[in-house]
Design goal:
- The complex is a heterodimer of chains A (98) and B (188).
- By secondary structure, chain A is α+β, with helices and mostly antiparallel strands.
- Chain A has a single domain, classed as Arc Repressor Mutant, subunit A (Orthogonal Bundle).
- Chain A contains 5 helices and 3 strands, in the order ααβααββα.
- A 3-stranded antiparallel β-sheet of chain A has the order 1-3-2.
- In chain A, strand 2 and strand 3 form a beta hairpin.
- The radius of gyration of chain A is 14 Å and the shape is elongated.
- Chain B is mostly helical.
- Chain B has one domain.
- Chain B is elongated, with a radius of gyration of 20 Å.
- Classes of the chains: A alpha+beta (98), B mainly alpha (188).
- At the A-B interface, helix 2, strand 1, helix 3 and helix 5 of A face helix 1, helix 3 and strand 1 of B.
């Protein structure tokens, strides 16, 4: 039985997961690039990333690019599965009401 | 959790839009940009081969090649600031270094330096070999474009050797540039 995931269902987290799962499995998106893409503030993105990280849906990694510290984010395999199931649950709702 | 049909449709639409935006913003790891850059380089270089004396054409190739490498370097740098693929990044650089060494060896040993047409086609084929490898490794459309341009290069060399440079400028460079532009604007 497909179910909507309450962690992913929140609109900002839904967009974060959508953006990260659009990338290849081994790819990580930089924090600022993700923030700009979704039009969020630093704080807002951080809060939602923390929730997704606590659920094991994203992995946050800090690294140096040249001399600058940067944060890279990727969807974990668990996160990808959860997101796929969430999308399937949304599609099932549409199909059931047709 | 109660979600109506309309809400579900709205959420799915948001997901599709964000995913499309993500792929486009990062332009598939820069693939379409590299195709457009090298499409222009080929167009200028091969057109020079066809219509200019060989020394001038060689200088034009050198200038266009340097411009292409500089543009590719900055594109790669810009993409790497936003997207990271651990394990791939270093190997991509090493692959192109190996490619450069092997291409130089093949062209040097085959004596293609004395035959501008043969050298042009060999470089085109080797470049597309690089695209096919990158495509299989990172992003499949690149492999498709590589195979298509290789077929064009071989066909032009075998069937119309006198016009091979003109064909490579228009079809080779053109296919690369237009494919890059099309993929950038329309790929979802």
């Amino acid at each position: 039985m497909l179910h909507l995931d309450p962690i992913i269902h929140q609109p900002v987290r839904l967009q974060i997961m959508a953006a990260l799962t659009a990338l290849p499995q081994d790819a990580q998106m930089e924090f600022v690039a993700l923030r700009k893409m979704l039009g969020l503030s630093d704080g807002n993105l951080s809060v939602h990333l923390r929730k997704l990280e606590d659920a094991g849906y994203v992995q946050v990694e800090k690294a140096f690019v040249g001399r600058k510290p940067r944060t890279f984010i990727a969807a974990t395999p668990t996160g990808r599965v959860a997101f796929d199931e969430h999308v399937q649950a949304l599609q099932a709702i549409i199909q059931r009401s047709e | 959790m109660n979600v109506s049909k309309n809400e579900a449709q709205t959420y799915l639409q948001i997901i599709e839009e964000v995913q499309c935006q993500a792929r486009k913003a990062l332009a598939h790891g820069g693939g379409p940009f590299f195709m457009m850059i090298w499409g222009l380089v080929w167009f200028v270089g091969y057109l020079g081969n066809q219509f200019l004396p060989s020394q001038t054409a060689g200088m034009l190739w050198f200038g266009a090649g340097m411009a292409g490498m500089t543009a590719s370097f900055f594109t790669g740098w810009w993409i790497s600031k936003q997207l990271r693929r651990p394990g791939h990044d270093a190997r991509i650089g090493l692959f192109w270094l190996a490619w450069l060494i092997y291409t130089s060896l093949i062209i040097g040993i085959s004596g293609a330096f004395s035959d501008l047409t043969l050298m042009s086609v060999l470089i085109a084929i080797m470049a597309m070999f690089g695209y096919v490898v990158m495509g299989l490794w990172l992003w499949k459309p690149l492999a498709g474009v590589g195979i298509l341009v290789t077929i064009l290069a071989v066909a032009a060399y075998l069937l119309l050797p006198g016009y091979v440079n003109l064909i490579m400028a228009i079809l080779g460079g053109g296919v690369l540039f237009i494919s890059g532009l099309y993929i950038y604007h329309n790929w979802r």
